[in-house]
Amino acid sequence: MDIRPAATLALTRDTSDGIEVLLLQRTWKAIFLPGYYVFPGGAVNEQESEAQPHADGCRRR
Protein backbone atom coordinates (compact mmCIF):
# COMPACT_ATOMS: atom_id res chain seq x y z
CA MET A 1 0.00 0.00 0.00
CA ASP A 2 1.39 3.40 -1.00
CA ILE A 3 1.37 6.09 1.68
CA ARG A 4 0.00 9.43 0.44
CA PRO A 5 -0.17 12.83 2.11
CA ALA A 6 -3.46 13.30 3.95
CA ALA A 7 -5.13 15.79 6.25
CA THR A 8 -7.45 15.34 9.22
CA LEU A 9 -9.91 17.78 10.72
CA ALA A 10 -10.77 17.58 14.43
CA LEU A 11 -13.90 19.61 15.18
CA THR A 12 -14.86 20.03 18.81
CA ARG A 13 -17.35 22.12 20.75
CA ASP A 14 -17.95 22.76 24.41
CA THR A 15 -21.55 22.10 25.47
CA SER A 16 -23.37 22.06 28.78
CA ASP A 17 -22.99 18.25 28.68
CA GLY A 18 -19.24 18.42 28.04
CA ILE A 19 -17.00 18.46 24.99
CA GLU A 20 -18.35 16.96 21.78
CA VAL A 21 -16.12 15.67 18.96
CA LEU A 22 -17.28 15.22 15.36
CA LEU A 23 -16.65 11.74 13.97
CA LEU A 24 -17.83 10.14 10.74
CA GLN A 25 -18.59 6.49 10.18
CA ARG A 26 -16.80 4.94 7.22
CA THR A 27 -18.99 3.09 4.75
CA TRP A 28 -19.28 -0.67 5.22
CA LYS A 29 -18.17 -1.02 1.57
CA ALA A 30 -14.77 0.59 2.27
CA ILE A 31 -11.73 -1.61 1.68
CA PHE A 32 -9.81 -0.04 4.59
CA LEU A 33 -11.46 -0.09 8.06
CA PRO A 34 -15.10 -0.50 6.98
CA GLY A 35 -17.60 0.78 9.55
CA TYR A 36 -14.99 2.48 11.74
CA TYR A 37 -15.62 5.92 13.23
CA VAL A 38 -12.99 8.41 12.08
CA PHE A 39 -12.17 12.12 12.04
CA PRO A 40 -13.14 13.76 8.72
CA GLY A 41 -10.25 14.14 6.32
CA GLY A 42 -8.74 12.82 3.16
CA ALA A 43 -5.96 12.96 0.63
CA VAL A 44 -4.09 16.23 0.19
CA ASN A 45 -4.75 17.91 -3.15
CA GLU A 46 -1.56 19.74 -4.19
CA GLN A 47 -3.59 21.94 -6.58
CA GLU A 48 -5.41 23.53 -3.62
CA SER A 49 -2.31 25.17 -2.13
CA GLU A 50 -4.01 28.60 -2.01
CA ALA A 51 -6.01 27.36 1.00
CA GLN A 52 -2.87 26.76 3.07
CA PRO A 53 -2.70 30.27 4.63
CA HIS A 54 -6.18 29.70 6.08
CA ALA A 55 -5.30 26.41 7.78
CA ASP A 56 -4.32 26.54 11.44
CA GLY A 57 -0.98 24.85 12.00
CA CYS A 58 -0.21 24.34 8.32
CA ARG A 59 3.51 24.20 7.51
CA ARG A 60 4.92 25.04 4.10
CA ARG A 61 7.78 22.90 2.83
Given the helix and strand composition, which structural class is it? Answer: mainly beta
Instruction: Assign an overall shape.
Output: flat
User: How many beta-strand runs?
Assistant: 6
Rg, Å, rounded: 15 Å
Summed up, the helix count is 0
What is the terminal separation in angstroms? 24 Å
Describe the overall structure.
- The protein is mostly beta strands.
- It contains no helices and 6 strands.
- The protein has a two-stranded antiparallel ribbon with strand order 1-6. A two-stranded antiparallel ribbon has the order 2-3. A two-stranded antiparallel ribbon has the order 4-5.
- A hairpin with a 2-residue loop joins strand 2 and strand 3.
Write the layout of secondary structure elements.
Elements: E1 6-8, E2 12-15, E3 18-21, E4 24-25, E5 37-38, E6 41-43
Antiparallel strand pairs: 1-6, 2-3, 4-5
Annotation keywords:
two-stranded antiparallel sheet, 0% helix, 6 strands, mainly beta, flat, 61 residues
What's the gist of this structure?
The chain is built from no helices and 6 strands. It is an all-beta fold and 61 residues long.
